[in-house]
Amino acid sequence: MQRAWMVRAGRDGEWEQDALRDGMVVAAWPGHLGDLGLYRNRDALHQAVADAYPRTDVVRTRNWTGQLWKLADEMSEGDWVVLPLKSTKQVAIGRVTGPYAFRKEEPEGLQHTRPVEWLRTDLPREDIKPDLRNMLGSLLTICELSRFDAVGRLGRLATDGVDPGTDKPEELRGIDTVADLAKEVEAKGPVPMTIRDLLALWDAGSRNSAVVDRMRADLAGYGLSTAPPFTDGSIDTPIRVLSIGAAPETDATGGETAFHLITGGGEPAAGNTSETTDGAPEETEEIEDTDTATAPEIGLRISHLLSAEHELLSIALDGDVITAQTTMLDSGYDQLAVVDDNGSLVGSISWRSIGRARISYDQPTVADALEDGDRRAGRKDELLGWIDDIVKTGYVFVVNADGTPAGIVTAADVSERFGEDLRPTVVLEEIERRLRRALTVFSAEDLYHYAKQYKRSTIADKKRRGQLRPLSPDDLVFGEYYNLLENDEAWERLGWRISQQILLARLDEVRKIRNSVAHYHPDPLSAKQIKSLDGLRSMLRAAHSDARPGGGAG
């Protein structure tokens, strides 16, 4: 029976290009396990894993064994495999073509492999419907995708890029309006979802000011709010929709403060549940203010860079340094959050601070190895106020109002976000420059002639009122590019050997994207929007270089 799997290529995607180039999936496992094919059964492999990681608890070593056994024994030729690409935020899909192979001479991250024929390496994550896409958020390196007809849907995605599944996660099916959501909250209590799922109830894909105002008004009208606020965090941040009159929960494992506390023995502790003596949770979570009079957000906040994909690992203040080191080796992290008995963040520990402590102490504790300085930012802190600290130290921890850790923002997160914001601006600038240069074929009178055919044209309006100086392409607004290129006579004069219909469709999409970029909101452009920008830029580059001599486009 054909099955489907997800296999990551390193915690930070460091082996992705090797996997795609060499046609394989890899289990980027550190440690000297040797050829997995030599172990006669799963128990034998577990013993080897336990021997390789003697300080790791049995729960974790059995989990690792299960993942490695899937690669070595359970996968079969013809199975589908998905590789989430951290470098591009896209997804690769392929088929397993052969048995497990141990590549002894390769680095540890490239030794345990399966051959794969990659059929698609640039699928936008957004093209995968939420139920299947959410399964790719597993923190496991290797896992089976056994629900939601993953096998059949991956086949369609690989061949034609279309996911035949539903747009809603299973637990949200039947919730199509805010009224449906209110009924679900009344019947079952707080409803977990992502900010993206919530936006979909308003047919919105991003949080601009108009959308946020409408959502706040509608939620308030039904007596609903969210915790944490839906204006915080990235668009895929988990939230809970709850009744404003209900006491919010503090769930240390799946709510706002989602982190794992590593105790001296290496096992996850229960964390801080903030429960009162009668079992009712205290009101410690921040809730979205649905008062429509609330001023709109201005600028980026720290919380906008928090990612639902990042696991925040913590260690107790009275823990031991060996556990901290092993946890950082296992996770690939350079630092851990340090929390007290109440689960509140008290500082951090890093390779640098551990090295310093080992010079000063024979057997340093976590408390001895705390980093100097306060690296705790509030969720509502402005990002710009923390930029210098993040660049200098490489990271800052983000805390909730009650002092518990909410996540971490690194220099890489800041770089990625500013890249996401800057790239569309640069591409849009090139698009406009190319359009204006191409339109120099038209004289001022030509532009007047074409503009007056459109009643809503600002050019024609100013011309009628006598307020227009001699006209050039630089005077056109973006919508007027569309009006001009829609005119068959003008299009013929350009001499472009590309489809007028396709270019106009892209130009209209980009017009809307340009408006979105010009009016600030905290969510970066989607992969589809970026594709529209790149597509129009490619057309204009080709059209300009391919224009007929004398056609005026050069």
UniProtKB/TrEMBL annotation:
Residues 264-292 are annotated as: Disordered. Keywords: CBS domain. Coiled coil: none annotated. It comes from the Bacteria. Residues 308-365 form the CBS domain. Pfam families: CBS (PF00571). InterPro entries: CBS_dom, CBS_dom_sf. Transmembrane segments: none annotated. Residues 280-291 have a biased composition (Acidic residues). This is CBS domain-containing protein. It comes from Streptomyces carpaticus.
